[in-house]
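thought: fold this chain, then report.
action: predict
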Amino acid sequence: MWLMIVLGFIIPWLTAGYVYKRAPKIFFTIAPFAALIALILNQLGIQTDLWTIHTSSNVGLLNTMFLDLGIFTISAVWFTYFIYYKEKQPAWIYTIFVLGMTGVEFTALAIHLLTYHEKWNIFYTSLMYFGGFITIHLIISKLDKLEVYP
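observation:
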């Protein structure tokens, strides 16, 4: 559990300070949506028995809370920062973030923090991340049209 707290929550939030200094609006707009998306998808996957996260907690929500509010939320913050504020090429940003998050999950599989059940695999995981980042990108576009971002 401590490994997930440090790697999945503390370290991502330490990197987020850089983005907060340059674009604090992301934390009040995208971060809540990203946390909600992560929480819903993780709980849906666990409750439908697609995957199991191995921690010492007996409380189901605690198994993913630090990841949902940590690495998943902060990856969406960085994604938004690069897409909107740095105006990087979206195709590259999607590729980097989807492959990066899939790689993190593959590492969790390799060190047995996570187990996929027979209905799920790493390809579906990459599709899920792609869909999540598309959703975040749609939210960014809507916030831009509403002139929320400078």
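thought: worth noting. The mean pLDDT is 91.
final: tokens above.
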